[in-house]
Design brief:
It is built from 16 helices and two strands. The protein is an all-alpha fold and about 280 residues long. The chain folds into two domains: about 140 residues; about 100 residues, Leucine-rich Repeat Variant, CATH 1.25.10.10.
């Protein structure tokens, strides 16, 4: 199966040798940059990444001769597996993790090193920070504060993206939500849902009810509505449930399904609703 076919095929239908196919493309310095970027994107999928694939990605990350685009995607490829590792703590169940604890630690250390090195291209540093925050560590708060306070739009985008995984930035998330910058607002919407930021509710409702809201931002807001106030989600989203746009209708259906699953159960001893 070639790269184009892989891009058009759901990950669960990829052949067993997909990792080898991607490694071959990633390791081929003569391959088109666009192909290597695509291969790095696919390599981060949990169904294909393993210790060998991770080693190939880290070799690219360490090589200053590689393009920023390929190195940046190689960094991002670690995001999902780092998040998975963070969810599973000390890796007691080896079947839950596609890579070894040693590989995960090496990846975390490399991403931190790359972010901290100001001689590394900006895009590689940004992507390293973005990927690493999916398994939050003590150093991330300072890094996010620095990025957000820089005044550099790209670094600020990275900071707001990272706030989705690192708590303690509610005020900054709300400012980004109201910034008027579509990309910034998109990252902020996701962060509001991650941390159930109640103060964001009125702004999310406006986004959902405004016919001029860009679809990408609308879909994100639909998801956040279901997370922050599941008990009110149906009232707010019902008008969009029958949207002619399949992506919007599916987003509403998913949000309502998740909101119903997370609805509050009655606490009989206190006579109030608890999560």
């Amino acid at each position: 199966m070639d790269l184009k076919t892989l891009l058009d095929t759901p990950p669960w239908d990829w052949p067993r040798d997909t990792g080898k196919i991607l490694q071959k493309i990633l390791s081929d310095g003569r391959a088109e940059e666009s192909d290597r970027v695509a291969a790095a994107q696919l390599a981060g999928n949990l169904v294909v990444i393993d210790d060998e694939v991770a080693d190939t990605l880290m070799a690219i990350l360490r090589d200053p001769k590689e393009s920023s685009a390929v190195r940046g995607e190689a960094a991002l490829a670690f995001g999902a597996v780092l998040e998975q590792a963070d969810l599973h703590g000390e890796f007691d169940d080896g079947d839950c993790m596609p890579v070894s604890p040693r590989t995960t630690r090496r990846a975390q250390e490399l991403l931190k090193k790359l972010y901290s090195d100001e001689s590394v291209p900006k895009d590689v540093r940004r992507r390293s920070l973005e990927a690493s925050t999916r398994a939050p560590s003590a150093w991330h708060k300072k890094a996010i504060k620095t990025a957000y306070a820089s005044g550099d739009r790209e670094w600020m985008l990275t900071a707001v993206f990272a706030m989705r995984w690192v708590k303690g930035f509610d005020d900054q998330i709300l400012r980004a939500l109201q910034s008027g910058d579509e990309d910034m607002a998109y990252e902020a919407v996701h962060a509001t849902g991650s941390w159930d930021i109640e103060r964001a509710w009125p702004h999310l409702v406006v986004l959902v009810e405004d016919a001029e809201t860009p679809k990408k931002l609308l879909v994100a807001a639909i998801g956040a509505i279901g997370q922050i106030r599941p008990e009110n989600a149906e009232d707010v989203l019902s008008d969009l449930a029958d949207s002619d746009d399949i992506e919007i209708a599916e987003a509403v259906a998913e949000a309502l399904l998740e909101s119903r699953a997370g609805e509050y159960e009655e606490d009989e001893s206190h006579g109030k609703w608890i999560n």
